[in-house]
Amino acid sequence: MAPVEPFDRNAALQKALMALAENCARLRETCYWAGASAIALEELHHRGSFDLDFHTQKALADVRPILAEIHQAFPGGFELVSAPDAFGSGFKGILRLPGQEGVTVEVLSNFEDVPSTQLVQSETAPKIRRITLQRFLADKLQCIAERSEARDLIDVAAILRHQPQLTSEAKRIVKSLDALILAERLTGWSEASIREDLSAYRDVDAGDALYARDLLLGWLREEGQP
User: Fold this and answer.
1) Closest Cα to residue 130, out of 15, 8, 10, 27?
2) Which of 140, 131, 137 is nearest to 165 (CA)?
């Protein structure tokens, strides 16, 4: 058995990404690298990430052929954790490369087509595309309205501090969301609950999440929303 190298989360993610992009043609042609790992590793470097997310560029694509491809490319190296449903809308598993710790990989079918203008070539694995910062911002603001995870606030704060010119775009997106639902999500976050939710992320400052919460609430008030 090959010796396991000292664990480095970012290095493990990068090696898994490169292996997938190199060996899985269907994955790289059908999907793009989404989620925080893409932005954190290649642009913002603002926090650690724990997995690799891939989304289909076309809406409602069946991802089961991609699962078969991964199994074929890495025989015995991919442990399925969550199997595809009857429509092949997604799956999750753990990829273990020789001598490496396992990396969680999730492949999901999008609910809408993603324009190529919202994707760029990855620097880490140039054969695959990844999400742009602008698209990531839109996704994160939508996530804040749909779920309760303080890491989304951390991501928004990092984006706007790194690229303040995106503030007007962020305001436009916030205005398009349901103001009552968004306000309810934001006011539900206390300092204590934010710190507790971020306890697994040792490399972030909870103050950044509080900053993003208050910033978004301020924009809602500017629009005369509760």
Assistant:
1) 27
2) 137
Q: Is 80 exceeded by the pLDDT of residue 188? A: yes
Q: Is 223 helix (H, G, I), strand (E, B) or coil?
A: coil
Cβ distance 159 to 140 under 8 Å?
yes
Residue 134 structure tokens = 């602008």
Sign, CA torsion 108/109/112/115: positive
Q: What is the pLDDT of residues 59-105, one digit of tens each?
A: 999 999 999 999 999 999 999 999 999 999 999 999 999 988 999 99
Length, in residues, of the chain? 226
Question: Among candidates 218, 211, 135, 133, which has minimal Cα distance to 182?
Answer: 218
Cβ–Cβ under 8 Å, residues 40 and 51: no
Q: Using CA atoms, how far apart are residues 191 and 187, in angstroms rounded to an integer?
A: 11
Helices (H) and strands (E) in the chain, counts: 10, 7
Q: Which residues of 83-117 are buried (b: 16+ CB within 10 A; e: fewer)?
A: ebeeebbbbbbbbbbeebbebbbbbbbbeeebeee
Amino acid at 69: E
Of the candidates 130, 105, 120, 119, the residue with the CA atom closest to the CA atom of residue 16: 105
